[in-house]
Give the backbone structure.
Amino acid sequence: MAQRLATEYVNASLRLSEDQVSQFIHKVYDPHVRQRVKVLDNGGQVVVLEDDGGEEVHLPFDRRDGNYVCELSFRLEKPHLTNVMRLLFSTFKGSGMVTRIYNGFMMMYYYQEGRVRKIEEYSRDSHKLIYEHKDTVGELQRIYRNNDVELEIDLIHKSINALLDLRIVTQDSHEVGRIDGELRQHTRRLFVLEA
């Protein structure tokens, strides 16, 4: 198994309620990682996580609309702090890009509200899409609810009925030919729509 050299969080963001901030601070179970909280004058907080090796990350939470919002980019190299951040980021529905750097390649994870939406692998010579979330059920529901085809079929039926009524009363042979041409076009379109 490849040895991870570093983990980078790019444009990472967390949005927590006041209760969640307390849970966030107490969620660190790793005995190798210590946490402390600095309360700022504006009501914000900075959560500092530090591992035994001296690596630390400062997570500034600003108060916005009754929530605490943290937005930042940072790099971690030590495994204990990396694992704690991965757990916190997932548990508290973080969004952003997380790059795991290995010797010779990188894995890029795109998170949206704590869930991985896409994974890509980059090496010097190649790029591979490993995983991409597809909302298949949602897409099928949108297609099922889309009734544009039924509406067009209904309009064509009404137009055909009007053309047939007009054809019955029309005496001019040129007009009958034009009406027949329109009826043929409508018939072809119905065939395509109903197929």
